Amino acid sequence: MELAKIHRLDISKYNLTFLPRKEEMFAEMLEKVDADDAVLEALKSVFPLPERNTDVLLHGDYWPGNILWSDGKIVSIIDWEDAWIGDPLADLANGRLEILFQLGKDAMIYFTEQYKSVMTKVDYSNLPYWDLWAALRLSKFTEWELDENILKTMKERINWFISQAID
């Protein structure tokens, strides 16, 4: 599981002070985004999230489109422009939603189970909030000029994703 490998890097060995931290990213997102009131209310009610996990290097945009394959093996993960330091659940949530968009519910569940099986020391209790953050972050997909059928499917999937996080 490549995402887990990224999250297991010992970031203390590297000078990553140039990367933004989760607190900055989260606060900025809550202030400038126009989104579903229930999502914003749920996130603002718990901000700042309690620290439950050690900060790690986050890819920031982990999804199938940023993974390069050769002969059935992952050879590279690209597009690191959104990298930051923070809770590993932020990356997991983003990947979950992107996989849900691209491959459906079963693939998202499988991805989540695989990650959890490798990252056993992570506290997953804040995952619903990170799922909402991912939904908030990706809520602008309606502006991506997608095919109407794809857009309809993505709307259905994000609505399900939000409802499972709020429940």
From TrEMBL:
Domain Aminoglycoside phosphotransferase: start-end pairs: 3-93
Cross-referenced Gene3D superfamilies: 3.90.1200.10
InterPro entries: AGP_Transferase, Aminoglycoside_PTrfase, Kinase-like_dom_sf
GO molecular function: transferase activity
Pfam families: APH (PF01636)
Keywords: Transferase
Annotated protein name in UniProt: Phosphotransferase family enzyme
